[in-house]
Amino acid sequence: MTKEKLKAYEERLKPCPFCGTKAKFYASANGMGYNASCRNTKCRILVITESFDSPEEAIKVWNKRGKADAILQ
Ligand SMILES: [Zn+2]
Question: 47-69, pLDDT tens digit by residue?
Fold first, then answer.
C-alpha cells in the first residue's frame, strides 16, 4: 500500500475518543493487516484497533468506537 493511500484512509478516521488527537492509520509490515491507533504518545490509554484484513474494516471499527464514546459524554 502506498503512503498516499494510507493517508487517504487516515483522513477518514475520527480523532481519538479519549484525547482527541488525530488517529494514525497503518498497514502491518507484512502487508496483511490494517490498524488504526491514537498518535498521541501521552494518551493515557493505548487506543488501537485489532488488525483487520481490509482497511475499510479497520476504519469502520475505529470510527464506531469514537461514536460510542461520544454517546457516553
Ligand atoms: Zn488518544
Answer: 666 788 899 998 998 888 654 44
